[in-house]
Structures are given as structure tokens and as C-alpha cells.
Specification:
By secondary structure, the chain is an alpha+beta fold. About 30% of the residues lie in helices and about 25% in strands. The structure holds adenosine-5'-diphosphate and magnesium ion. Adenosine-5'-diphosphate binds next to strand 5, strand 11 and strand 12.
Length: about 300
């Protein structure tokens, strides 16, 4: 049955541009499915947003990424307005967005995460922070923005790097090896994709440029490692109480030989990229589900908390 759907996109986080692309592609798919679609470019003005949601749509398709759109805040607003929305609810979104909070939940439930801790920005220039190599990253940003890798002997954190970070920062042991990602749809993990970049680091450019990362789906991994990566991702999705589609980012250290012990979970993305060439749609396609069908599946699961 045709629904009135409002697609929320853009927003004012650093991931605005990516969200505009996801939103336009999802809106197109929703129209192909026969729905009445309203595209809302969310700006930093709540009165405008509430006005754009009148008359009230049957559902919101949330194509926002990053702060405000992915961290439980827009979800709370939609809950209060009584408009069903796609993807995760308030708490799951907030937990997933805060890497300090989500890693506490994961490690308390025996899901392996890199060794690490949250510090105040002012503690970062402390020489004995952690034995390099280690990673310094914002607790609540996406798309590799603000991620610094400190290698032994080569580079150090500078005052300029530190000045750009928020008050709370995550310091993590650097996991060498390979970069994996797993989409979870409902409670089911779809596939494991390995991401390869020439630069060796998966930064913003590599994530979104044409020439960016090479996606290998399904990843070439030993069967038990493949299965364990799928299982860890599905467990992480359930532990945070996520809904609809999410995507887990993992590292796999096979530098000492292949073993499931080399897997570590980095994060769960509750609003993963949704262009037809993004990782989640790619895995859905690998499992026989075309992009338009995936978008329809996500819409069907729209709900309030
Ligand atoms: N502990 C780590 N060890 C190795 N690489 C890491 C580590 N943490 C982050 N990275 C690299 O930085 C990228 C971004 O980190 P991630 O935690 O996924 O945050 P986000 O994607 O939200 O920016 C990862 O995809 C990975 O390539
Ligand atoms: Mg990530």
C-alpha cells in the first residue's frame, strides 16, 4: 500500500554531503515502490523541520548520518511527534554513536574490542598514554573524521591535532591487519566485506571517493573467521538493541596467522551509507536483494520506540 513518506537527509553534521546522496537515492527507490515521497533537507532549524513534517507523514525514512541524525536526538523528536521512523531508536542510536559507551557494553558482554579507554583531551599530550602504535579518535564522529594513528617512533600527537578534538576522546590499541565490515538486517548478518585502500588507512577520501576503497564481497577469509565476524556483528546489533539495518566495522589481525582471536569490533553504525554502491546495499545484493527492495524492507520496519 502506498504510504506518505518523508525522507530526512542532509542535516548539519560533518557527514551532510554523504547523507544528501543517501537520501536522494532512497527517495528515488521509495518512489519506484509507489510511495508518495517528500524530501526534507534538514537544517539547523527545528521549527522548519516540524513544519515540513505537516501534514504528518505515515513514516519517516531517516537518511541522516552523524550527529543529531544518528545519535538518538532526531529519533527522540520523532518519538515525541508520534511519527514512525526507520532504523534504530533513541537508546541504541545514542549508545552506538558514543564509542566509549558502546565499547563498554560490548566488552562487558565478552565481545572483543581493541584495548583502550576514554580520556579528556587535556590528557592526550601525556607521554605515557599508551605504547604506540595506537589510535586516537573522537567518541562521537563518523566517516574516519578526526581519527589519528600514532606509529612507533614516527609521528606524535601535536597540539594542533589535539585542539581539533572534542573534550572526550577514545584512545585504542592499533590493530594491524585487515578491515572488515558486516551488515546486519533485522537479526541476520548478511555478509563480510573486506575493504582495501592503497593508502593503508581508511580515511574520509577513501571511504567516499570513486577511486576509494576496493570492496571484496564476500571477503576471502577462513570459514571460521568469516562465521565469527558475522556472529560478532549480529550480537553487537542485538546488545545495543538496534532495529532495521546496521553495519559493524571490524579489524582482523592475521599477522600472526589466521585465527578468530584476531577479530576485534570497532563500532556499529546505526545509519549506514545507503547509496546503491554503499556497503550495506552491496551485501544485500550479494544475498539476492536489490537496492529498491532493501529500501522497501527498511521502510516496512519504521516504528516509534
Ligand atoms: N583500533 C584501531 N586499530 C586499527 N585501525 C583503526 C582502529 N580504530 C580505527 N581504525 C581505523 O579508522 C577507521 C575509522 O574508525 P571507526 O572506529 O570505524 O570510526 P568512524 O568510522 O566512525 O570514523 C577504521 O575503519 C579503521 O580503518
Ligand atoms: Mg567506522
Amino acid at each position: 500500500m502506498a504510504k506518505d513518506v518523508a525522507v530526512l537527509m542532509g542535516g548539519w553534521s560533518v557527514e551532510r554531503e554523504v547523507s544528501l546522496v543517501s537520501g536522494a537515492d532512497c527517495a528515488k527507490a521509495l518512489r519506484e515502490l509507489g510511495h508518495n515521497v517528500r524530501e526534507i533537507d534538514v537544517k539547523h532549524d527545528l521549527d522548519d523541520l516540524v513544519a515540513a513534517l505537516k501534514p504528518r507523514p505515515d513514516a519517516v525514512f531517516n537518511a541522516l548520518h552523524g550527529r543529531y541524525g544518528e545519535d538518538g536526538r532526531i529519533q527522540a523528536l520523532l518519538d515525541m511527534l508520534g511519527i514512525p521512523y526507520t532504523h534504530s531508536g533513541v537508546l541504541a542510536s545514542a549508545l552506538a554513536m558514543d564509542k566509549g559507551a558502546s565499547r563498554s557494553v560490548f566488552s562487558a558482554n565478552r565481545l572483543r574490542v581493541p584495548e583502550g579507554f576514554v580520556v579528556n583531551r587535556s590528557d592526550l599530550l601525556d607521554k605515557n598514554l599508551m605504547e604506540p602504535p595506537f589510535v586516537v579518535k573522537p567518541v562521537n564522529e563518523g566517516s574516519s573524521i578526526g581519527v589519528h594513528i600514532i606509529r612507533p617512533g614516527s609521528n606524535r600527537l601535536t597540539e594542533e591535532m589535539v585542539a581539533e578534538l572534542d573534550e572526550r576522546v577514545l584512545v585504542e590499541q592499533y590493530i594491524p591487519g585487515r578491515e572488515l565490515t558486516v551488515a546486519v538486517m533485522g537479526d541476520e548478518p548478511l555478509a563480510v566485506t573486506e575493504l582495501r585502500v592503497d593508502t593503508g588507512f581508511f580515511d574520509y577520501e577513501a571511504k567516499y571517493s570513486e577511486a576509494g576503497a576496493h570492496h571484496e564481497c564476500p571477503a576471502e577469509l577462513p570459514d571460521d573467521v568469516y562465521r565469527e565476524a558475522m556472529e560478532m556483528s549480529a550480537r553487537a546489533h542485538r546488545l545495543l538493541g538496534c532495529r532495521g539495518v546496521t553495519r559493524a566495522d571490524l579489524r582482523y589481525d592475521d599477522t600472526n596467522g589466521p585465527s578468530t582471536d584476531g577479530l576485534a569490533l570497532l563500532e556499529i553504525n546505526t545509519q549506514p551509507g545507503m547509496t546503491p554502491t554503499s556497503l550495506v546495499p552491496e551485501q544485500a545484493r550479494h544475498r539476492g536483494m536489490p537496492f529498491v527492495e532493501l529500501v522497501g524492507w527498511i521502510l516496512e520496519r519504521a516504528q516509534c520506540d
